[in-house]
Amino acid sequence: MDPRERLEADRAETQARLAALLEDHAGVVAASRDSNADDEHDPEGQTIAFERSQTAALAHQARRHLHEVDAALARVADGSYGRCEVCGEPVPPGRLDARPTARTCIAHA
Ligand SMILES: [Zn+2]
């Protein structure tokens, strides 16, 4: 597959995931407000706090991935995509298949 197409698809998918997570997050925050839970003493409040931090961590991950995808798309645009940042050698196609945002060859990973 064309790297740009693959990255665009990854980008769309990540954005959808992020939107779903933020929606979840909004729902959890609203639920915790409704239950008027005390996070420290109410067991249900603790569950909500956990879900909230999990969701926040996943959203953070999705955002970071989005940055990587954007950086990879910029490299496609300037022609440096698929070359190792360290040695300038081509990154093996198998590695790019597994990790389309890879910036380095296996030796420099
Ligand atoms: Zn290298």
TrEMBL record:
An example molecular function term from Gene Ontology annotations: zinc ion binding
Pfam families tied to this protein: zf-dskA_traR
Zinc finger region(s), dksA C4-type: 84-108
Highest taxon in the source lineage: Bacteria
Gene3D superfamilies for this protein: DksA, coiled-coil domain
All copies of domain Zinc finger DksA/TraR C4-type, residue ranges: 79-107
UniProt KW keywords: Metal-binding, Zinc, Zinc-finger
Protein name per Swiss-Prot or TrEMBL: RNA polymerase-binding transcription factor DksA
Organism this protein belongs to: Nocardioides scoriae
